[in-house]
């Protein structure tokens, strides 16, 4: 076996700094009908101006707020509200509920399932201005902050004090902690820190009628009835608007190392995974996967592999600990797994470049044309089989790439069409993929959404993962908490 390039310095590469793609908007037809909500009028706008400053009642230049990150969904809202406090949100929702005005909560608008933008003319309630960090208690390792704090800003804040946020994802520069909680976002450090459900110690949220639910008790033990904050986490803005939170903030490990390895067969990836469990359990920080097709797209955008040769599969393995031997542990691991090829990043800049290759695949793919983006969970034995089957089904119509958080059994399967128009061929692809992918998940008891949520895209596929009794209970909860269905209508559950 070749084992030539470990620990070598990263080759000189010209990485281009990419910004969010500015794609042409595409027309996606919706078969939905506007529900019987009130149409906004001047008196409503005037009322909102009596609750928040006129500068935060926006009625023009709303393109960004109306369009989702993938440029797939476009709403037609004529009003964006940017409140600064929980009490203002309470007054706004109370009014909307009485008048039956529909509302879409919006954070950083980086969601990938169409949940954060209106379907028709719903009012957009943006949490952008709710960005205060109230306190950081280092005794209980708890941060208290508002929903509109950007994830990266929070991370910079806690890192200065020797801590780290319990989640990290490619959209960190734009997504907000309220949006992260509302989607129960996963990301690359889920294998180490677990879910936001686990790391959220307290929440404040506003119900559809303006009632404020204060569930901000950070005590580790508190068995006093239902854990209401969990209702809002992952509910994608359909049950209430999250306004504040208390989060568990782990200490930042002193040492951190990153290894990229390549494999010829997917079985070899599984074998490495098995060995990570056996030998690295205590130090593992991230286990991420991408295939060569993903890398080829990335290289077109200046994100070059540090390995000289191409291989079918790659794994990024990050370890972190307070042990000065952290890198040695990773080197010892290499001699156990004997991969075809690989590199260990030698400094922070190399780590950043290696992470960029993985973290910006969604962005790179979106620059090439329309991307059908599936975010699924399934047993590891079938993980790549789905990619190969999809390739066979789609044939020459599109490129199929597979990457994701393999440590959490979470595959991102992207079908990359090389045009920006939803023409006949694109619809053909959709018709092939949608029954196939969801039927496969039923077969393997997988999930239609591992981390991005249901939003608008997957409403009709919720029943592939959730049974009918569970869906009925979800509907009951929604009707009880939002009887007029004003909060993010058309999303998550079909009525
Ligand atoms: P938005 O997109 O604004 O909203 C998402 C949903 O939450 C919507 O339904 C919205 O109505 C609701 N919502 C927003 N704020 C609130 C609030 N305060 N109260 C109630 N409801 C609210 N996701 C992952 O899980 N893991 C990843 O690794 C990951 N990587 C990504 C990489 C890229 C490049 C991109 C573009 C996206 C990625 N995502 C990932 C998806 C997205 O970033 C997450 O879903 C994120 O949590 C959304 O946060 P946001 O603030 O942008 O929310
Ligand atoms: C990622 C996004 C797409 O993991 O969730 O890159
Ligand atoms: Zn992801």
Task: Offer a concise description of the structure.
With 495 residues, the protein is of the alpha+beta class. The protein is 31% helix and 19% strand.
> How many DSSP helices?
16
Distance between the termini: 58 Å
Radius of gyration: 23 Å
Strand content range: 15-25%
What does this structure look like?
The protein is built from 16 helices and 16 strands. Strand 7 and strand 8 form a beta hairpin. It is globular, with a radius of gyration of 23 Å. About 4% of the residues have low confidence. Helix content is 31%, strand content 19%. Helix 14 runs antiparallel to helix 15. The strands form 3 sheets. A 7-stranded antiparallel beta sheet has the order 13-10-12-11-15-16-14, with helices on both faces. The protein is an alpha+beta fold.
Fill in the keyword field for this structure.
495 residues, alpha+beta, 7-stranded antiparallel β-sheet, 5-stranded antiparallel β-sheet, 16 helices, 31% helix, 19% strand, binds flavin-adenine dinucleotide, binds lactic acid, binds zinc ion
Would you spell out the secondary-structure blueprint of this structure?
Layout: H1 42-51, E1 57-58, H2 63-66, E2 80-81, H3 86-99, E3 103-106, E4 123-126, E5 133-137, E6 142-146, H4 151-159, H5 177-183, H6 190-193, H7 196-199, E7 200-206, E8 212-215, H8 229-232, E9 241-248, E10 255-263, H9 266-279, E11 284-291, H10 292-300, E12 313-321, H11 326-337, E13 341-344, H12 348-359, H13 361-366, E14 371-377, H14 385-394, E15 399-405, E16 410-416, H15 424-443, H16 468-481
Parallel strand pairs: 2-4, 3-4
Antiparallel strand pairs: 1-2, 5-6, 6-9, 7-8, 7-9, 10-12, 10-13, 11-12, 11-15, 14-16, 15-16
Helix pairs in contact: 14-15
The chain binds flavin-adenine dinucleotide (FAD), lactic acid and zinc ion.
């Amino acid at each position: 076996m070749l084992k030539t390039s470990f620990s070598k310095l990263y080759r000189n590469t010209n990485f281009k700094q990419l910004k969010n793609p500015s794609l042409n908007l595409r027309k996606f037809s919706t078969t939905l009908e506007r529900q019987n909500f009130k149409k906004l009028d001047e008196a409503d706008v005037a009322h909102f101006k009596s609750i928040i400053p006129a500068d935060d009642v926006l009625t023009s230049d709303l393109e960004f707020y109306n369009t989702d990150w993938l440029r797939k969904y476009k709403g037609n809202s004529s009003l964006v509200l940017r409140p600064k406090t929980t009490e203002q949100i309470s007054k706004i929702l109370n009014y909307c509920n009485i008048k039956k005005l529909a509302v879409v909560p919006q954070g950083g608008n980086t969601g990938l399932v169409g949940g954060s933008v209106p379907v028709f003319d719903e009012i957009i309630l943006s949490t952008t201005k709710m960005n205060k960090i109230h306190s950081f208690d280092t005794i209980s390792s708890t941060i208290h902050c508002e929903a509109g704090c950007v994830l990266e800003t929070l991370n910079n804040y806690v890192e200065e004090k020797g801590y780290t946020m319990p989640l990290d994802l490619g959209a960190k520069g734009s997504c907000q902690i309220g949006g992260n909680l509302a989607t129960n976002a996963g990301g690359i450090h889920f294998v180490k820190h677990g879910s936001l459900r686990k790391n959220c110690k307290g929440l404040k949220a506003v119900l559809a009628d303006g009632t404020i639910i204060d569930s901000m008790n950070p005590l580790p033990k508190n068995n006093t009835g239902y854990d209401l904050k969990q209702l809002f986490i992952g509910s994608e803005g359909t049950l209430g608007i999250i306004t504040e939170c208390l989060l568990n903030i782990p200490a930042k490990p002193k040492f951190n190392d990153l290894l990229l390895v390549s494999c010829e067969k997917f079985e070899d990836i599984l074998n490495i995974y098995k060995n990570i469990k056996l030998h690295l359990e205590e130090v593992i920080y991230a286990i991420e996967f991408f295939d060569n097709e993903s890398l080829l797209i990335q290289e077109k955008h200046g994100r070059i592999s540090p390995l000289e040769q191409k291989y079918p599969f790659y794994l990024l393995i990050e370890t972190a600990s307070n042990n000065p031997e952290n890198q040695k542990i990773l080197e010892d691991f290499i001699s156990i797994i004997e991969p075809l090829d690989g590199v260990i990043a030698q400094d922070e800049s190399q780590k950043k470049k290696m992470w960029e290759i993985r973290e910006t695949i969604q962005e790179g793919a979106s620059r090439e044309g329309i991307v059908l983006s599936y975010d699924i969970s399934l047993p590891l034995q079938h993980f790549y089989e789905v990619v190969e089957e999809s390739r066979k089904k789609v044939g020459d119509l599109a490129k199929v790439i597979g990457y994701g958080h393999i440590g959490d059994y979470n595959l991102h399967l992207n079908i990359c069409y090389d045009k920006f128009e939803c023409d006949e061929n694109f619809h053909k692809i959709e018709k092939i993929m949608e029954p196939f992918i969801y039927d496969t998940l039923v077969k393997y008891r997988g999930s239609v959404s591992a981390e991005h949520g249901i939003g608008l895209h997957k409403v009709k596929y919720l029943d592939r993962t959730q049974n009918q009794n569970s869906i009925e209970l979800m509907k009951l909860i929604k009707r009880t908490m939002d009887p007029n269905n004003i909060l993010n209508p058309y999303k998550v559950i079909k009525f």
